[in-house]
Hints:
Blueprint: H1 2-21, E1 24-28, E2 34-40, E3 49-51, E4 56-60, H2 70-73, E5 82-93, E6 109-120, E7 126-129, E8 134-138, E9 143-144, E10 152-153, E11 156-157, E12 162-165, E13 170-180, E14 185-190, E15 193-196
Parallel strand pairs: 3-15
Antiparallel strand pairs: 1-2, 2-5, 4-5, 5-6, 6-13, 7-12, 8-9, 8-14, 10-11, 14-15
Amino acid sequence: xxxxxxxxxxxxxxxxxxxxxxxxxxxxxxxxxxxxxxxxxxxxxxxxxxxxxxxxxxxxxxxxxxxxxxxxxxxxxxxxxxxxxxxxxxxxxxxxxxxxxxxxxxxxxxxxxxxxxxxxxxxxxxxxxxxxxxxxxxxxxxxxxxxxxxxxxxxxxxxxxxxxxxxxxxxxxxxxxxxxxxxxxxxxxxxxxxxxx
Length: 197
């Protein structure tokens, strides 16, 4: 009896260790300098900062639509805000523009790019900022906005700055940031969500 209880205890302990260890794993992507998350457990509410591969659902106000729809005027039920689920899954250091992607970074700077997926998980069509809604922080605490006007990178398409997503539709691509050559990217932000890079 004691042996079977001990075996059950060891099995539970091993399962707990395995689940804890599967929270984050980084591997090299096909592109040189890229880090990609291959396994992550999404746990909104448990941490304020997430890791690559973890999804965060964000409720966003819909400024172009009235707070109460005509159908809801009689019931008083307010239309919920738009909801986007955002998942960054890879980081590329020293990104380069595609052949038709425009100019590269300025002297003494480099481009870092983050591959993200943005999915409309709300209740209606979303129209607004997508790629231009991200901010990247470096280890010095400096904030960087996406580089505008990049048609594509050597590793793939860039995420449109603004767009329209139907219910359930997903947009994915690279968001590119210009950093000083000696800076290191540390955190990606979209609304209230944060991811450690």
